[in-house]
Every structure is written in C-alpha cells, then in structure tokens.
C-alpha cells in the first residue's frame, strides 16, 4: 500500500539524487511494482512504491537510507526486477531504490583477474565488453540477458553452468553494501576486496548473499574473471523411460569430468509439453519420453577428452543421441529461458496467454522421482478445480557448485492464466505453493535453490525449513535493521520485532 | 470466475481508450504475462536512461494498467516519446524470436507505441515539436528537415537532381526521401549515378511527398494518409510499377502502411536500393574500379537490419569496393546499436539522440584496426552520427556515397 | 523477385504434422490455427516478416554460441570416433 510521502521528504530525496532521478508519478511507480512471478494483477495498486529514486553512487544510496531511517519510511531495493520470488515487490510502499543507473565498469584488473562494476550492470552486456580481453564472467541464469548483478547478489543466484564455474556467491568476490541504517561496508572474504578465501573475522559475504534486499543494498561488486572458453560441448539424449533418464543424469553428474558445466533432466510431462510447440521436439517419435542434456566448457583439448567420456556414459545408459542440431540449438536457447505465454493451453486445448510460475526447490538426487510425482499431483488438482492452470512439466538441473552430484534445482513450470485471477483461485494457488514447498522439506530439500522463498504461500514454511535457524535470521535482521526499514514484510521478518 | 473488462474498470471511460485496450490487450498481456525483459538491454533508449518507464515492458504494462483503470493516457504520453522504433525489443523478445512464427503472433511494441502516440494526439496531448513538424509536413508536402523556416516543398524536392536530366515517371522510379533529397543530396545523386551506370532505367516522381512514416510514427495519422494517397496517385499518374527506395524508413513505411489504403497495391513492386545495387554488382553490371584506401566499419541501420532482416546486401557491397579495409561488427551484435534518430526522437529529445549516437560512434572508434569511417545505409541515421562523428574524429558516410566514389563519380 | 509484392506475402496452404501442429515452410512448424480461435487470435504476418523471424532465430542462436565460446564441439563427430575405436 503506497503511503503518501511528505513533500519535504521528496525535496530531501531530490537534494540527494538530483531532480532528474526522483519520481513520484503514476507511470514511474506502477511500472516498478512487479517482477515476472505470477502477480495478482487485480491488486496491482497495493504493491506500488510511494516514490522512486535512481541513485548514481553508493553515497547517494547511503544518504537515502539514512533519510528513510530518520522518517521511518520503508526502502525497497530494485535491480532488474526479473526475480521470481517477489523480492523486489514493495509490500508497504516506501522509497524504491532502483540501481540501474549504476551500471558502469569501474575497473578491469588483469593482474588480480577481477572486474569491478556497478550492481546495475547486466551480465551479457558485461561479457560483451570482457570478451575483447579474452575473459568471461560466467554467471549464467535463465535471465542472463536481463538480470543485473545487484539482483544476483540479492537472490544468491544459480548459474546453468555452475557445476563448472560456480554460482553467484562463488563468482562475486566482494561487494560494497549499504546497511539498513545507512552505513557502508565491504562484504567479502576478509578485508581485501580481491581476496577469494579468508578466515579473518566472520565471513560476512555469505550473510549478505540471498537476503532479498532485507539486509541492505549492494552498490558495487568485484567479480571473478575466467578465461573465455575455447570450446563448448553440449549433448541431448532421449530415453523411453523417466527412470532411465534419471539414472543417466546421476551417472553423468558423477562422472568426475572437470569441464562438466551442467546436466539437465527433462521429465515426461516436460517432453509432452514441448511436443506441443517446440520445433526440436515436435517431430520426435513417441518413444522419446524423457531427455537428458549435458554441457561442458573449457580449453578445446580438455573438452574433447571430457566429452568423449560423457558420451560413453550416455551411450551405456541406453539413451539415443538426438543429434547435433538439437543439441547445439537447444543448448544455446537455454541462456534465455523464460516462458512464452502462448505455451498455455486451456482445458479446451485452445491457446491461452499464461503467466509462468517456476518452482525452484533444491532436491537431493534420490528423491527426484518421488518429488516429481507429488508435484504433478498438486498441479493436476489445481488444474482440475480451475480452468486457468496448465502443467508444463519439470526440469532438474545440477545444483552444486563445482560438484554436480548432489542436489538438483528442481523446477515445475505451471502456466497461470493471469487474466482470470480472482480471490478463490489466488487462495488455492497460495495453498498449492505451500504444498509444493512442504514436499521439498519432507524430502530433505530446500524450498528454493535460487529464486528465494519469500512469495506468498511458500514463505509460511520458511520457519519450518530453517528450524532454529529462523530465530538466528530474526536476530540478525533486528540488529542490522532496528527500524525495520529495509524491504519490510519479506520473509515473515516482522516477527523479529514482535515483543515476547 | 471474475473476468474484468475495460468497460467496467477503466476510469477513463473514453471510447478511444477502450478501443485501444481492446485492440492491444492480447499483445500487452503477452508481454505482461511473460515478464521476460530480454528487451531492456538491447533498447538504445534504455541503455542511456536506465528508466523503466521507457522500457518496452512498461509500454505494454501501461496498456494493462489502463485496462484496469490505474493509468490514463495523460500519465504516460511523454514516456512513449522515448523510443526510436528501432525494433530491437520486439525482435529480441522470445515471444517473437522463439515462438512468433510458430503461433503467428509476435510482439508488436512498435505498433503499441504508435497506437499510444496516436491516442495521445487524438486526445489533444501533443508533443510540441512533433506537432510543429507534422503541421509543416502537411503544409509543405515534405518534412521540415532544413529547420522550421526553410520550406521543403514538393516542387523543390528534385533540386538534388539538377544537371542529371532524370525524366519524370516511367516503370521504375527512385523514391529519394525528404532527409536525403533536401539535407544530404549527395546520397540520391550517388544512387542516381550508380543506377545509370549499371544500366537501370528510372525516373522521378512528378512531386514526391514525404512517405508519411514519421507522421504515422508520431501519431498524426490523417497527415500520413494524405501523404500516402498523394504518392500513390503520383505513381499511377506517371506510370510507375517499381519503386526503388534508397532509405529503409521509406521502404518499411510503404510496405507496412500503403497496402491498407489501396485496393490495387499489388500493381507495385517496392525495392530497396541497397538490394538492387548489390544485385547489379553481383551481375557484373557495375564497375567499381577506383580504390578507396580507408578503414571502415558498417552501421546496420535499425529499419534495415532489425525490422527488415536486410544485412547481407550492404556487406556484399562493401566487400566489393577495392582498397577498402572493412572491419565488420556482426548484425546480431548490432541489434543493440542505434543512431537514436528514428521516429523523430531527435526532434523532441535531441540530447537523448545525441547520447545514443555518441555511444554508437564510440563503439566504432574503439574497434581494433583504427576505423576512420563509419558507413551507414540510412540518411536519417547519418544526421546525428555525422554530428557525433565530428566530435570524435570519425567520418560518417552513406554506403551509396562510397559506392559512387568507387565507381569514379563525384557527388 | 528482389522486392516486396503484396500478393507474395500471403502464407501458403498448411499441411498437418501432428494433431496440434501444421507446417507451411520446410523445417518450420506452426500451431494448428484452430487452436487460436477462442482466447487469443493469430495476427496477419506477411511472408517477409515470417521469414525474418525464422532466420533471426538461427542467427541469434549462433550468436549465443559464439558469445560463450570460440567453437562448438560436435558430439556426432566424437561418437563416430568412439565407434571407430571400439
């Protein structure tokens, strides 16, 4: 709910950020309310900020946050607004701090192999520049062409090629952060901004990864530089049976191939869904029921050798190779993998424009088949009750940084016919989110591998998932943010301020 | 299931608003429901302003917001000025790029921007410089490309052809574009000399008027249709069957808008000069024997590359020029490039166009190999690019000027 | 034909590929238009625009490969090597 902000506060914000970078107009606020996750568009007005600022420096952000503390006005940080857990959605109006103007490359350090950037920069644009120097910053989510470094820190992002290069928390070396009270710290490993591993003091970098903007605003980050890969290898294998594919996934993940970047399992529902409109899968015979995709990156000599090992494993697993065209084309399309609304089908089989829910639980490998069955049942029950949900199948992706054999980012994609939201459907949806999250917990997993878990529904189970850890979370929140300024209402953290 | 309609919820109960929302609701929801935002980083305006109000995402979300009664056209009219209609967003959007052909349903950001700008004009919300530009185009027949005071009438539009003795009419006519004809006459002169040398017979219109493009783009539909109607009458009057466009803006305006206004449009074949000239070179009809010892790079004009998918002909032409060192930047990388001139952005927001062009020139300057010349194939882009090029020491040439030089002509 | 002619823009007849998919151009699939009658309707897309989208997709994917690595290694080639070695 947008609370009116005093004119005098707007004047103060203008004095800090400049008249061209403070906005209160309706188009400025309405267009910074949502993120791609299914959004209750029938209640849009409840989620708009009261004012928007586009700061150009850490100092400006610090001053804005201090001002917010003085006046007890909420602050909501926003990077790309491409997240999938509503982290950037204002719950109580307030001042939205949009970091997009801070998108410069500040320094390229060839000796230390780092690049220092404003957190408003996008990884694809960064890599277009780094390429000239033979480097790559390999943080590669499905939102690679549009998410920003600030959001990657805020969500503790996952990378499609994390099994090889690590995820955001492994790739960001240190960053400048404005705390909820306005002080500026450098969060890293120890004190030196380019130190990768330290045991000096508490390891603060990990605390400030994935906080969904509830513990401050990252303004500048120092990032890891890898040599640009000489070679990429990708292979897609088809299976007649989901369990065969699941076993093959495990074998490939445990292969020990150092250049292995990721393994992706497509379940039967996903293949049925892709047959509807994906040119790679439409012509496939009925015997193709599940698919395993796998990729490797590195120097050409090592990729070739590693690839042969992976191919031998895949061959022995009973799969059928789908060919180079699909293997290369489909892999290349994985770097921008959000879902097209036209994939939606109503009960009558007609195309309907659907928004996309993407679950992202971390599930231990042995639990994948059981979790899949339960999640599909939840989706089916929703679809049965309301002609506005469509099960688009499941993916499981290797989740461990540098260690592909552990848990999997497990995704069920559900199309949601957003134009049809009403209170009943929304309530059922929220319950389904809780049920999905419960399954993840019951099977020893985590509600979220990488999006975060502060969405309506799933957030209710965070205390259950973390157990006594949730008390620690509240303690930290209360001590760093005494006035509950920073993205209030997220993660049930209002509880941190309740007496008794 | 509660399904809200615009008529129930739009606080702005105006019929025109409801009509726009009805027409564009599916396209708007297609964007809104997906929330991809892959458009944002390829948008030349967004690269500069970083303001979400200027994103293609917002352009569509506003329609949804208007449907729900949250926003009015007054709230957003000025936001829609911030667009060159380069087409990067709607092409890059996975809803077009991955499934637009499969569903025969693609993103249409340009059409949405156009519809909103048209609605604003219809509701009396004008951008002052665009309004003036439209009024003068209406009065003179051609756009005021020489400034507010220098008339660019249909009777003066062929002045660039002085001394070339080009006939009026004939089966093939050369459509020379306002900006080129009045402000960069070396371009139509170059094309005329090249075509003549290649043995292509052609004439000029009796009185060429503005193609109407910028009028459609900025919301002045009646004036646009007046221009189009006049031009088609002129073609018929002078026996034209094939229209050769040297400017991609004219070509795309004609093929996208003229057929709806004329039942017999199939009589005409519309051709890009860059394709025609590439064909002549391929067929050996054009001798390019004067070497040009320059290091050049090529700017893919937005309407040619992103909107029409034409990127091979100009490169073929450049590779045929003797002595040239051509340092290429591929056409997909150039999806995120722009001069900033499109849809008359430079008329309303000159500082934004200037910054977009400044960055484009900087990219040319930073290329390894010491680029001296940026070659474009669009006179509109050449206006701000030339200005910024002067600041940064990069010469800006039109591709036809270069070809003419290689063919031994002085333009 | 080098340029644009209106009559050349109309899509040709489609033939059926699966119960929900048809095809007009070789190697290019389309949704059965019957599935877009109720909730969302198809647009009129001239052939030149359609071809632009298809070509652009392949060009984009090639660009993505090149963005991440200098070369793509063919599994078909390596499988042939593995065959030969066995």
Please name the defining characteristics of this protein.
heterotrimer, B: 411 residues, alpha/beta, four-stranded parallel beta sheet, three-stranded parallel beta sheet, globular, disordered N terminus, C: 86 residues, alpha+beta, 2 domains, three-stranded antiparallel beta sheet, 2 helices, extended
Task: Describe the protein's architecture and organization.
- The complex is a heterotrimer of chains A (500), B (411) and C (86).
- With 500 residues, chain A is α+β, with helices and mostly antiparallel strands.
- Chain A has helices at 7-17, 26-30, 58-71, 123-130, 149-155, 162-165, 168-171, 204-207, 242-253, 268-277, 300-316, 324-332, 368-385, 423-442, 462-466, 469-480, and strands spanning 22-23, 51-53, 75-78, 95-98, 105-109, 114-118, 135-136, 172-178, 184-188, 217-224, 226-227, 231-239, 260-266, 290-298, 320-321, 355-358, 361-364, 389-398, 407-416.
- Chain A folds into 4 domains: 7-98, Uridine Diphospho-n-acetylenolpyruvylglucosamine Reductase, domain 2 (2-Layer Sandwich), CATH 3.30.43.10; 105-227, Uridine Diphospho-n-acetylenolpyruvylglucosamine Reductase, domain 3 (2-Layer Sandwich), CATH 3.30.465.10; 231-458, Vanillyl-alcohol Oxidase, Chain A, domain 3 (3-Layer(aba) Sandwich); 467-498, no CATH class.
- In chain B, the strands form 2 sheets. In chain B, strands 5-4-6-7 form a 4-stranded parallel sheet, sandwiched between helices. Chain B has a 3-stranded parallel sheet with strand order 1-2-3.
- With 86 residues, chain C is α+β, with helices and mostly antiparallel strands.
- Chain C folds into 2 domains: 12-44, no CATH class; 46-86.
- A 3-stranded antiparallel sheet of chain C has the order 1-2-3, with no helix packed on it.
- The mean pLDDT of chain C is 95.
- Chains in contact: A-B, A-C, B-C.
- At the A-B interface, helix 2 and helix 4 of A face helix 2 and helix 4 of B.
